[in-house]
Design goal:
Strand content: 15-25%
Radius of gyration: 21 Å
Shape: globular
Largest sheet: 3 strands, mixed
CATH superfamily: L-arginine/glycine Amidinotransferase, Chain A
Distance between the termini: 51 Å
CATH topology: L-arginine/glycine Amidinotransferase, Chain A
CATH architecture: 5-stranded Propeller
Oligomer: single chain
Helix content: 10-25%
CATH class: Alpha Beta
Order of helices and strands: HHEEEEHEEEHEEEHEEEHEEEHEHE
């Protein structure tokens, strides 16, 4: 019996190659090539959440004077702005973004569910990030967002997307503070929402794939790098240089990444944009003629949409979209 077992093991042994992330293994085991290794390739699949009844908890009676906005101290939720938008207009702007993506050939999928008070769940960028072969589920920092991890995990599992790591322990990390610079280099920005343990756990997975993870610090109480930098083409980023460390700006130059710097006449939300494909970008209205001219000179095609109502909740176009599959640009 032992001899038969030994011969069977030799004949039908274990095979580490091809790798999990290879197109052969992804197709055979997981049904399609999952994930992203860049932030500008054509988006094929994108995760969003249409705001629902959870927004109804925000009402004038919940005003907290010391923050100049609305919230519930006991439950830990807060609204970002002094103005409560018309929720029909708020949802319409989100619907228009989703429809624009679909018109560009993107498959848009929605979260299966959210917390009853999950007013930030619309910002799907933060609860997971897509890397080569699957997703990392993050661990959100603030109590207002804790619990989103479970909902995104169920949604990804139902889609059939591999979850390569769920951040755990004392790790804190939100996807808005992560960006691909190229297929072998990513950046993560520490802040109140991202700690060293979160960086370490993300780095472990990326290093195993041969990806270098740069670490920088956000300025003051800024929380996410996507308010300061977004890739809009291969080796091209739009940036707010006042919100990024000088050493990192030098690193971008060393990597061959050019930058378009916004100016004082720009609405800063234009940095929180989304590349649909190389050089084709969705931006909120608010771009100055100077920045528009710079982008035109670089052959960047911009599609402008109204998104000011959604921004009142503290996130923009980039925040509201989590690409799960992008084409490679290598």
């Amino acid at each position: 019996m032992t001899s038969i077992y030994n011969q069977t093991i030799k004949l039908f042994g274990s095979y580490p190659e091809p790798a999990f992330e290879s197109s052969e293994q992804q197709a055979a085991v997981w049904g399609r090539q999952w994930g992203c290794d860049n932030d500008v390739g054509q988006i094929r699949l994108c995760l969003m959440h249409r705001p629902g009844d959870e927004m109804n908890i925000i009402e004038p009676a919940m005003r907290i004077e010391e923050i100049g906005s609305f919230g519930d101290r006991q439950k830990g939720w807060y609204f970002q702005s002094d103005v409560i938008p018309d929720w029909d207009e708020f949802r319409l702007q989100h619907d228009n973004l989703a429809e624009l993506l679909r018109s560009e050939g993107v498959e848009v999928v929605m979260l299966d569910s959210v917390e009853a008070d999950g007013i930030k769940s619309i910002y799907t960028r933060d609860s997971s990030i897509a890397i080569n072969g699957g997703a990392l589920v993050t661990r959100l920092a603030r109590s207002i967002r804790r619990g989103e991890e479970a909902h995104v995990s169920r949604t990804l599992a139902n889609l059939g997307m591999p979850i390569l790591r769920t951040l755990h322990g004392t790790a804190l990390m939100e996807g808005g503070s992560f960006a691909w610079l190229n297929s072998k280099t990513a950046v993560i920005a520490r802040s109140i929402c991202v700690n060293d343990e979160g960086c370490d756990q993300v780095e472990q997975v990326l290093n195993a794939q041969g990806v270098e993870l740069l670490r920088i610090d956000m300025c003051g109480y800024d929380i996410h790098i996507d308010g300061a930098l977004t890739m809009i083409d291969v080796n091209l980023a739009i940036v707010d240089p006042d919100l990024l460390p000088y050493g990192f700006l030098r690193k971008l130059d060393a990597l061959g990444i050019a930058t378009v710097e916004i100016d004082e006449r720009d609405d800063p939300w234009i940095v929180n944009c989304l590349a649909l494909a190389p050089g084709r970008v969705i931006m909120p209205r608010g771009m100055s003629s100077t920045t528009e001219s710079r982008l035109q000179q670089l052959n960047i095609e911009v599609i402008e949409i109204d998104y000011d109502k959604v921004q009142l909740n503290g996130g923009g176009i980039h925040c509201s979209t989590c690409p799960l599959i992008r084409d490679s640009v290598d």
